[in-house]
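User: Second chain of the day. Same drill as before.
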Amino acid sequence: MKKEVILAKSAGFCFGVNRAMETVYELIGKGKKVYTLGPIVHNPQIVMDLEGKGVKSISSPDEAERDSVIVIRAHGVTPEIKERILSSGCECCDATCPFVQNIHKLVKKASDENKVILMAGDINHPEVEGILGENKGEYYTFQNESELLTIIENHPDLVKKDIFSCAQTTFNVSEWKNCLKTIKKVYTNASIFDTICNATAKRQAEAEELSKECDAMVVVGGKNSSNTQKLRDVCKKHTDTYLVETAAELPENEFKGKNKIGITAGASTPASIIKEVLVTMTEILEKEMSFEEMLEESLKSLNTDEKVRGIVSRITATEVYVEVVGRKQTGYIPADEISADPAAKPEDVVKIGDELELLIMKTNDQEGTIMLSKKRVDAGKGWDVLANAKENDETLTGKVTEVVKSGIVVMSNGIRVFIPGSHATNNRGESLDGFKGKEISFKVLDVDRPKRRAVGSIRAILREERKAQIAKFWEEAEEGKTFTGKVKSLTSFGAFVDLGGVDGLVHITELSWNRIKNPSEVVAVGDEIDVYIKSVDKEAKKISLGHKKAEDNPWEIMKNQYPAGTVCEATIVSMTTFGAFARIIPGVDGLVHISQIADKRIEKPQDVLKIGDVVNVKVIDIDFEKKRVSLSIKEAAKAEEATEEAAE
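Assistant: Same format as last time:
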């Protein structure tokens, strides 16, 4: 069975790092005393090499000797730090990556225009610190879509401001695409610049494609390097991934049974280290070939004459005995050759009297026995089923036998099918623990019979179902139709609700009959709420939803329960020079004119009332069109006196 190691095309130094490295070595060649403001690259081996040549890494310009050269690394620094270097008596050599310098200029211009900076990146990373040093106003940073949504929720006023958005040069490309959709949806007039370095995007794309076809990935680079960490995150979505700084850190035991290993490297990893890892990894694979693999190789030479039929005669915990048709030897099937499912018990798979198609594994003429395998015959048929399903885009079913860190394993037709975590659910990050032991349906993405590798996707089916669901929704959508939906996101102007593949907007005025300042006062992300379609535009695929119910309209309650002449309790909620406002029911406040507060003249409402007082009022008049209510405390008191007199 062929084993191979594949190196990504774009592994190793990027333009910015290479430029910074050449700058330092050129200064060393000129006999200069060189300091770097922080490690020139996030690679301990390179830093040690430079230290051996007299280059020191410092954290502040004050640490450098006068008349020396301070090199600003590719990450860049804040304008204040650059000023400190220039005033320190040292020569400043700026090796900031041109791509990073461009972001500095963009952010400075946006800051001068009083725009709010919304940046994708790690606030603690030196590149981001340097860029934000150009900003003099309001700014926010986020590392993923979840953090972006938190900013949107906690700062609803941002929708009214001018937004400038950009990204750290080494930001995760796929995560940036997800965030972009949200930014464009919420901040419709935002200025957006895709500032992820082309080399970063290309490197991540290559690594992701390579990880999809490999049994494992090795990412080479400094463990503190941002772009190296992003490469690891991209790869581990699809396969087992190991981050190493040198060949000595390769976890040899982890590669047993793996045939294709991919290697990529961060932008700060020198070619010498990459080559060392490549050579060592190749040596590991060449000397590692398991007994099972060698047996598989030997079985390839067997012809159809090595297949027999057997009738089950006895079942034990460790073996199944069969009468082999046309032969005198006794046949037996070891428990681990009955089924590809390691948890399956022999008695659950076969019954006495079953006739099985079997493969001869070993013949012992002296004892007159034949060791047989049912698992391998089933596997041969199973591979045919999987190949046909892939070719014809058919759906297969299977039982989930394992949940591993990178996905789930499904047993289908006697074949172990791997479903990556990214293909197991519709949304990334969802827990896979609930799949264990379940029967699921899936599509076949890849079948590699020689390497005994099959990859499937549940998401492919979910997407088809979702498309059908969405098509049906738009076909049946009409005004007045009701749904139970889940709140997907909140903005300052309303809530977006998922109706099952289609999002609709409940405007803030449609969430409650009471006045609210933010949708979060009524609903939260994840809440299930009842809504109805207020308007639908099928061509533009837009839906406006309503949530508040007509029967909860406080003015309808007033009409039915508090007509003019009613005496009731009310709570004082505010006061003016001309009277006090009292709340009869939530959503309806009435005015008690100053002349209707007491049966004597008062200078101001505060003379006899305070906010929070509960008083008896009489409803004098209701203007439903203008939504105004006139109340009287004085008339309510008279009504009480009249009632008491009548009672006496």
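Residues 289-305 have pLDDT under 50 and may be disordered.

User: Great, on to the next one.
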